Amino acid sequence: MAASGIAPRILCIGIPVRDLTFRVEAVPEHGSKANATHLAEICGGNALNAAIAMARLGGSVAFAGPMGDARETSSSFILERMTAEGIDSRHIVRMPGVATPVSAIIIDATGERTLTIYRDPALWTVKLSDADELLAGCQAVLVESRCGAFCIDLCTEARRRGIPVIVGVDRAMAPADGLLTAASHLLFSSEQVQETAGVADDGEALKRLAGLTSAFLAATRGPFGTIWLNEAGTLEETPAFPVEAVDTLGAGDVFHGAFTLRLAEGGVREALRFAAAAAALKCTRHGGGLAAPQRIEVEEFLRSER
Questions:
Q1: Has residue 162 got a pLDDT over 80?
Q2: Phi and psi at residue 132, to the nearest 5°
Q3: How far apart are CA 183 and CA 165, in angstroms?
């Protein structure tokens, strides 16, 4: 928690998902089938996983974005989970006749996941609440990169007010994507940063993107740590913490959430190390974003790694 003792207020913008997860020894071959050893129904989505992580790490978290019809069961399931995690869901926009996204996720014995997801195209027509309402008392905004269609104006206004806007990049971005310039911090994965920049090297990709945006740029590389550009434009690396991974689902989202919260408390370097620890702990347990650690766990883990 921040030195003042007051939990930072973070606004998360995204599209919640209802996840059905299946554990298998190996992903079945095309046209075949396999018996799962475990089934779990959890809530997910990049921003929601990050929001859960931040709430557990001591943040005061509000969530904004579209959700399906009030009569369907998926949205009710997700809202109940958000309430249990202490996430403010008043800014969720219910969309009549629209389905809340649902995904089927296969997790193999190595912890790697394979998934398919359905998102109703109508979700991107959502109209969020007024900026004054959403940004009041806000110390940071975290947004899924796919949500730029309905939140660019809000992110631009947040930056105008001096509020950091962190984008958790969940797919390659086009050079003309408004979030490239609306963001203060862009967090890619290795694959996404290379595809976005058109360069088959993480460091060179970050340097090329630095010519398109003034945002802080970083690329996560799983067990190989995070590479990023400092204020001088020099590449630096923050190591990952070695753990025995059993489930990588949601690890990147937990990293984004932990980074955002710690950044709101002060310090990019500290935020990167804190996020690496939170993501590592998440990978040691099943449950996607719902396996995000508590603040005391991360702090104890960091002390043990000094």
A1: yes
A2: -60, -40
A3: 5
